Amino acid sequence: MTQRPAVSLWDSSADEADIVSPLAGDGQTDLAIVGAGFTGLSTALHAAEAGIDCHVIEARHVGFGGSGRNVGLVNAGLWLPPQDVRARMGEAQGAALIDLLGKAPDVVYSLIEKHQIRCEATRNGTIHAAHSPRGQADLARRAGEWARLGAPVALLDRAEVAEKTGTEAFFGGLLDRRAGTVNPMGYARGLARAARAAGARISTGARVTGLHREGGQWRVRTASGTLSARDVVLGTNAYSDDLWPGLRRSYTMIHFFQLATPPMGEAGAHILKDGQGLWDTAPIMFALRRDDAGRLIVGSMGALMGGTGGLSRRWAARRLRRLFPELGPVEFESGWHGQIAMTPDHLPRIHRLAEGLYAPIGYNGRGIAPGTVFGRALAGLIAGAGEAGLPMPISDLTPVPARTLRTGFYHTAFAVNQLIRGL
Ligand SMILES: Cc1cc2nc3c(=O)[nH]c(=O)nc-3n(C[C@H](O)[C@H](O)[C@H](O)COP(=O)(O)OP(=O)(O)OC[C@H]3O[C@@H](n4cnc5c(N)ncnc54)[C@H](O)[C@@H]3O)c2cc1C
């Protein structure tokens, strides 16, 4: 349990302890990492294991960003189907990225195992559920390609998905057995614990307010001290501030909100009974999972409106009533939202912003496994592996056209969706 206000259910329910460690004065390190989410912490863990002196600086606390607020679906691949990744990146690079990210859940679960991370880890797959016949056709296309690549996926028909989810609302689904669920805050804190044990330093409550190059070193400035570092990794993702000019403008920011019921006991035991997490094919995506205590956690795109008593609560109650009328009236004990960085082509980026300054960013709502393997790759780069070994070619920082307008448009569209569907 934490003393500060919790940013999500996971913040209150994670078994792993929070790390509170202020930055005390100036210091020197080989690698400064800004942001203590999956990307920054995986970079730190793997860099420290490779013998690199490194220091994570986090403005708030471990898992303050998307890492402590997400749905906890440890999915394989990207949001795009594999064939579309290859079409956008080119055959060779696309195939290499798909291969890496197809195996990325293995990396997550082996880290959990190796470091005994207490994060409610289950690995019975996840279900991408079809909200319409067209959604099922899209899933069939995904399933066909993943099967061709040898991935353990199964296309479920209507009856099969009903049996697994406990509702007949879906037209079918794609079960991906590589995937699973975690308590994401537990996973982030466990990575932080492992990184510290490997020798990394982590400072919390220290916002980096300036990054300047002086005499071949980066000067990483905070209100409580300045670090000198040879290299810097910015793991700030959708929570980027104005630290580096243009970084925030390189993605569109959307919100995703979730509400959690109290533990449901036997009444909810038939819902996702094998412990899979679920998201659907609707353009305004819906997600559903359970946690170890038996809470149902529902979510969708948009900001949480009106806390646990307002518009979002009405939306969630109505959604659960439609899916599981047998539950009767449902209460919610917590609600929260987080920020997601979307890129125009739905591919992540690794930017080299200046000499020795890198920013992996833009996982498009799928960052648990990708953030973990991108962090590992960044550590490899700093250890001397070379840019050719990175999962993505280095790209320039390009602003998303009309970024503010787009962000505003999505915000409004998602709010209207909650309003209409919550009535
Ligand atoms: C609601 C939601 C649901 C999602 N569901 C899933 C899912 O089910 N599965 C999945 O794989 N992915 C999911 N994602 C995406 C995933 O959570 C993110 O891609 C991932 O957490 C990104 O990790 P990160 O370490 O790159 O960034 P973050 O976890 O966002 O961390 C960035 C950190 O940088 C810090 N920071 C920013 N600026 C500064 C500064 N100037 N100085 C110091 N620190 C700074 C922030 O405080 C923050 O802690 C979801 C995201 C959200 C928001």
Structural commentary:
The protein has 423 residues and is of the alpha/beta class. It is 32% helix and 24% strand. The protein has eleven helices and 19 strands. Strands 1, 2, 8, 9, 10, 11, 17, 18 and 19 form a nine-stranded mixed sheet that branches. It has an eight-stranded mixed sheet with strand order 5-6-4-13-14-15-12-16. The radius of gyration is 21 Å and the shape is globular. The two termini are 35 Å apart. The structure holds flavin-adenine dinucleotide.
Termini separation comes to: 35 Å
Radius of gyration over all CA atoms, rounded: 21 Å
Tally of distinct domains: 1
Helical region count?
11
Shape: globular
- Poorly predicted regions: none
Structural key phrases:
FAD/NAD(P)-binding domain, 11 helices, 423 residues, nine-stranded mixed beta sheet, single chain, alpha/beta, 24% strand, eight-stranded mixed beta sheet
Structure, briefly:
The protein has 423 residues and is an alpha/beta fold.
Present the secondary structure layout.
Blueprint: H1 9-13, E1 27-34, H2 38-49, E2 54-57, E3 73-74, H3 82-89, H4 91-102, H5 104-114, E4 126-129, H6 133-148, E5 153-156, H7 158-165, E6 173-176, E7 180-181, H8 184-197, E8 201-203, E9 208-214, E10 217-222, E11 225-234, E12 252-260, E13 277-280, E14 286-290, E15 296-301, H9 311-323, E16 334-342, E17 349-354, E18 357-361, H10 368-385, E19 394-395, H11 403-422
Bound molecules: flavin-adenine dinucleotide.
Flavin-adenine dinucleotide binds near residues 65 and 208.
